[in-house]
Amino acid sequence: MKATVSWDEGVSFIAESETGHRVTMDGPPDLGGQNKGPRPMEMLLMGMGGCASFDVLTMLKKSRQDVESCVAELEAERADAVPAVFTKIHMNFVVTGRNLKESHVKRAVSLSAEKYCSASIMMEAAGVDVTHGYEIKDSL
Fold it and tell me: How many C-beta atoms lie closer than 10 Å to residue 107's C-beta?
C-alpha cells in the first residue's frame, strides 16, 4: 500500500492513495490553516471507524441480517503532552434494520475488534485503550 502527501499551502496538505483517491487535510486557523479538511489525527480516527465498519457490515450481510444503516460513533481522548497520542478510543456501532439478531451484531463487533480490524488492533498494540459497544434499532 502506498500514498503520497503533498503540501498545498499554509498547513494544508493533499493526501492521495495508491488507488487515486484524494483528501485534503488542514490545520486549525490559529496555526495558519483554513479548515479545508480534517486534521491528520481525525483522519486516523475516521480510518479506524471505516475499517471496523467494513468488517461489521460485511459480517452482518453474510449472516443475512437485514441491515439498513450502520453508523460507527467514535470518541477519542488524547494525551495532554507532546506527542498528543490517542490514549482511549470508544467505538459504538448503531445498527438499524429489520429483525436484527443481537447475537449476530455482538459477534460481528467482537470479531472486528479481536480479529479483523487492522486499524483497531494496531491502536491497541500501541497502547491505546480501545473499547467497543453497539446499539440495535429496529426500523419501522
Answer: 15
